[in-house]
């Protein structure tokens, strides 16, 4: 009986992964260069994403704050050095002054790059709308993460 109970608990642990916050479940791997504003925040490893808003500024979430951040642009597969990436260190990191790490209120930060990036087909600023989108408008959300709830990940942006 106890062996059956242990087997059931192990099966349940495998069936329900603990790390559930890095997923865009139901997402798909994007075409290369289709989200040229998507950046990878790196501190020796990829830890968060962000969006390039002009050639020297990135917007991200304040919960992604680290003292030093390297911004990687032009990435498609963050697990492979593809040769077209630009790596730029942060010069200044500004978290919203009212950011609350407990409630995640005002969870936004700006990252000023140490030098302007070269804009091209793989690196571009996010196109901003001139007005509010009407209710029901479909949106694109991009980032790196697992596309399947069981942990499947292509390594590319979704």
From TrEMBL:
Domain Peptidase S1: 24-158
GO biological process: proteolysis
Signal peptide residue numbers: 1-15
Cellular component GO terms, alphabetical: extracellular space
Keyword entries, A-Z: Disulfide bond, Hydrolase, Protease, Serine protease, Signal, Zymogen
PROSITE patterns with a match to the protein in the record: TRYPSIN_DOM, TRYPSIN_HIS
Pfam families noted in UniProt: Trypsin (PF00089)
Any one GO MF annotation of this record: serine-type endopeptidase activity
PANTHER family hit by this protein: TRYPSIN-2, TRYPSIN-RELATED
Protein name: Anionic trypsin-2
Species in which this protein is naturally found: Ailuropoda melanoleuca
